[in-house]
Each structure stands twice: as C-alpha cells, then as structure tokens.
Specification:
Blueprint lengths: L1 E2 L6 H12 L18 H13 L3 H9 L3 E6 L2 E8 L7 E6 L10 H8 L12 E6 L17 H14 L5 E7 L1 H11 L4 E9 L16 H17 L1 H8 L1 H10 L1 H12 L4 H4 L6 H14 L2 H13 L12 E6 L7 H4 L4 E7 L7 H4 L1 H14 L1
Parallel strand pairs: 4-5, 4-6, 6-7, 7-8, 8-9
Antiparallel strand pairs: 1-2, 2-3, 3-5
Length: about 375
C-alpha cells in the first residue's frame, strides 16, 4: 500500500488549455438543440468555462484532502481513497463509481458517511469508506491486458478489502458500480454483509427468455418502454462495447471531444427535459480533466467491451446477499427484474436527483444507505 498524492505538472494543464483554445467546431443544424446529440451551444459554453473559470488546482486539493493509496492486484494498479471514521464501531463500506465518473463523484458524501456526528447525524451510522478508482479509469489506469470485466474487478476489490483488514463490509455502487457491487457479493458472499445500489444498469429490461412473463402487466409495460428508451440512447455504449480502440484516438487527442462524449451520459439529452437535478459544471469538468490528464478515456471505454464479452446482457447468477435498490429520477430499475438475480430486502423510489445520485441527491442517498445498513 503506497501513499498517493495527485500532483499534476503545470505543463500538462497548459497543454490542455492550448488544445481547448484550438477546438475545431463542427457546426450544427439551426435549432437542432440536443436532437442529434450534444448541443454545440451547450458544449462551447462549457469549454469556455473549462478554459477561463474552472479551477483544477482547487479540485486537486479537494481530492488530496482525503487519504489516497495505490496497490497492485492481479497485475493491475489500483488507486483508492481510504477514509476511516473517528467512530470506533464504524462499518466498513466500499463505494464504486461508474462511467464516465471517477472517485471525485464521492467527495460530497465522504464526510457525512464517515463522520455523521459532525454532520448532524447519528454516530451509530458511521462507516469506514474505501472508494477505489475502477481498473482502467483515472489513477487506476490504463489497464494493461484483456479481461478486466465486472467480475474480475469485483474479485480485485474483494482482495483490496481483505488486504485492508476488512473481513465483513458493505458495498455500494451506481451505474457500472451497480453491476460491480452485486458481483462483489457473489465473489465474496461470506464477507459482504449487504449491497446497496442506485442507477441499476441491468434491471430495466428483460435479459432472458420468459423474463417479461414473470412481471406484472404494469412492469411489463415499463420494461418494454425501457427497451425503446435504451434503443434511442445507446449509441455511445454500442461503440464502446464493440470498437473502443477506434474511439480512443479521438478521446485521447481532443479534450473537447472527450468532454462531449462524457456528456452523452452525464447530461444525455436536453437536461431541461429530464427533470433531473443538474450535475454541476465543476463536477463534470473534474471528471473530464482527470480522464484527460491520466489519458484513460480510451481505457475506461474498454470496460464496455469486456463486460459485453462476459455476458453483460445476460441475467447474473442469483445472490443471497441482502440487497437494497434505490431509483432516483430517471432511473429505470424494475423490482421484478432485479429480484431474479438479487435478494432485494429494501426498495426505494425518489422523484428527485438523477442517475449520478452522489452528485445530484447526496443527502437522500446518504439517508438511504444509512437506513439499509442500520437494519442489517
């Protein structure tokens, strides 16, 4: 376990600004907005803020305020935050991000999770938090060989928790983390006391013949609507799940292009139309800057191909680990589908926040995590 501090050379930041200033804009159809993809007007405003308003050094200092380490597991560098609670009875909890996120997504929840007493909460709800950078992402990247799918990642995270001395712990995750965290429960069922997931990525549509017949009429209709919704917005995932290397050249050469690709899911379509709580510009640009400075946008994209080749669209094996699922605004998980592979003991629905709950509804997410693990 080697202590780690983020310290980006100024020359790297100068080059980023140099490239941003020379962005070649493709133009867009008059009045197209978000109908054809990310709006150029929106992106140009964000790139302007990236150049003239965004303060990377402030975000770097926020990240470095938390203890960070690296270690090598299964031949791969693993970077992680390890924030221990001052409460002696705190439960260990590993939190896993998705795409196009980094551990920066968790900065607003680390304090309340680890030290609820200092944030108006009950000290009995305290956690020791481990927040790894997913292999291939940011400071855990790039990956150096094939096969880093969600199951291999879960096994690596189980080994990480073992090395840290945590023999019983909880797992929480969103987006791809909502796939990795249940896999962690399958990889180490004797160690994982419970799994809490939001933005569940594999329980919104049928994955096996006969799935629809298992659902109520209302849920069957929702599942079919989810299939149509995904068909209209899955182009980015299809590209990364089939030809990520082709995409990597563009992502690694143009910061504006990389940012636009991230926005395909961070904002998706016109944010005014979704009703979701907007993700702050600083949060979006912190993630984009980390990917750019570490040169891992292409490596992160490979996770989609690795997951697809490992049967991403298939139903996972059943897990007996108690599982909580929370749907925020815009999430599509269906309980009847989630229960086919998970022992769901808590289900929550909130008409607030959005897909990136730690950024869009941190207080609600924290309350739901506390309530679930309090009852175990």
């Amino acid at each position: 376990m080697d202590p780690f501090t983020i310290d980006i050379p100024q020359a790297d930041l100068d080059e980023l600004h140099f490239r941003l200033a020379r962005t070649r804009w493709p133009g867009e159809l008059p009045g197209a907005g978000w109908d054809y993809g990310v709006s150029e007007i929106h992106l140009a405003e964000l790139v302007g803020y990236w150049r003239h308003g965004f303060d990377w050094r402030a975000q770097e200092a926020r990240l470095n305020a938390f203890p960070q380490f690296t270690t090598t597991i299964d031949g791969q560098t693993i970077h992680f935050l390890h924030v221990r609670s001052p409460e002696p009875g705190a439960k260990p909890l590993i939190v896993t991000h998705g795409w196009p996120s980094t551990v920066a997504d968790f900065l607003d929840v680390l304090g309340p999770l680890t030290d609820p007493r200092a944030h108006g909460g009950d000290p009995a709800d305290a956690f020791h938090v481990v927040a790894p950078s997913v292999p291939g992402f940011a400071f855990s990247g790039p990956t150096g060989e094939r096969g880093w799918n969600t199951r291999r990642i879960a096994r690596a995270l189980a080994e990480l928790m073992h090395r840290l001395g945590y023999e019983r712990y909880g797992a929480q995750g969103g987006d791809f983390g909502s796939i990795v965290s249940p896999e962690l429960g399958r990889a180490a069922p004797e160690a994982v006391l419970g799994v809490h997931v939001n933005a569940v990525a594999n329980a919104g549509a049928p994955s096996a013949p006969g799935d629809l017949e298992r659902l109520s009429e209302e849920d069957r209709k929702r599942a079919q609507e989810n299939q149509l919704w995904w068909y209209g917005r899955s182009g980015y995932a299809t590209q990364m799940a089939t030809r990520p290397q082709t995409l990597a050249y563009a992502l690694n050469d143009s910061p504006a292009g990389q940012l636009a690709w991230n926005l395909e899911w961070f904002v998706d379509w016109d944010p005014a139309a979704t009703g979701q709580t907007p993700v702050s510009r600083d949060a979006i640009l912190t993630n984009a800057t980390i990917f750019w400075l570490t040169g891992t946008a292409g490596s992160a994209a490979r996770l989609y191909l690795e997951a697809a080749r490992d049967g991403w669209g298939e139903r996972p094996a059943p897990s007996g680990v108690p599982t909580a699922v929370v749907n925020f605004r815009g999430d599509h998980a269906i309980r009847g589908l989630a229960e086919l592979s998970n022992t769901v003991t808590r289900w929550s629905e909130y008409d607030t926040g959005g897909h990136f709950a730690s950024l869009q509804a941190p207080d609600v997410l924290i309350r739901d995590v506390r309530a679930f693990f309090r009852d175990l």
